[in-house]
Recover the amino acids of this structure.
């Protein structure tokens, strides 16, 4: 473990884990809300469309909230067929209105059956003692109701060995907590030490440049490798370095 690398990671973490980070990031969408259920749904949907241009992602996230009357939990629970049909106008790259409608109905089922996303993840983690297992269980439950097969591509399958970047990012938002106030820390029954790094092209490239990752593919094995490396620097909260790796990857400031 290099003291120089530790110092660099700490400096970068301090640079990017700040409230000023929020407005230009998809986490700004759930930050509009104070209610836990609203934050869970807004966060999950914002994370679902979090690929491509960051500004476009943020715009799309806020547009989804507008189509849901800026009350995502109430909309998920009570939207009529006519109100659900309003979602058909939504498009973010290959995630279309029909996908959003199917996701809302899947969220409705999760809410009715388990009491919300947080209740599901917390209870499954406590039973399995494994966040990857909880992620796999979540995808199976999410698609247990009727839906178009095409929408399944928008929720990654950990059992296929993919990185599950968007789900890992959403879990970071909901589980991590510190005095900075960027992440929410709503789900207290899952320890921060159980989280895995949201691995994408930026964090992967930066991780390799810093010697934290040797695997060339950005898949789940790479997620396990880089998260294990970060646990050497902070076993209790390894994913806080997501701010460092992602931020410097975006800014090319390394």
């Amino acid at each position: 473990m290099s003291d120089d690398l530790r110092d660099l990671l700490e400096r970068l973490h301090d640079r990017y884990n700040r409230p000023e980070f929020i407005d230009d990031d998809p986490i700004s969408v759930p930050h509009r809300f104070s209610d836990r259920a609203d934050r869970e749904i807004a966060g999950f949907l914002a994370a679902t469309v979090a690929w491509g241009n960051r500004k476009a992602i943020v715009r799309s996230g806020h547009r989804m909230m507008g189509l849901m009357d800026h009350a995502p939990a109430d909309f998920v629970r009570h939207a009529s067929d006519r109100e659900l049909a309003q979602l058909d106008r939504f498009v973010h790259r290959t995630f279309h209105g029909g996908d959003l409608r199917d996701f809302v109905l899947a969220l409705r089922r999760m809410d009715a059956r388990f009491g919300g996303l947080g209740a599901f993840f917390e209870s499954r983690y406590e039973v399995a003692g494994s966040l990857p297992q909880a992620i796999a269980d979540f995808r199976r439950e999410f698609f247990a109701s009727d839906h178009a097969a095409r929408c399944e591509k928008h929720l990654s399958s950990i059992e296929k060995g993919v990185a599950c970047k968007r789900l890992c990012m959403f879990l970071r938002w909901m589980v991590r907590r510190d005095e900075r106030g960027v992440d929410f820390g709503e789900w207290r029954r899952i320890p921060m030490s159980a989280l895995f790094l949201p691995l994408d092209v930026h964090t992967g490239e930066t991780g390799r440049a810093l010697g934290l990752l040797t695997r060339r593919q950005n898949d789940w094995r790479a997620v396990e490798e880089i998260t294990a490396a970060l646990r050497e620097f902070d076993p209790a909260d390894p994913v806080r370095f997501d701010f460092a790796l992602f931020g410097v990857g975006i800014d090319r400031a390394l």
Q: What stands out?
A: Strands lie at 91-92, 95-96.
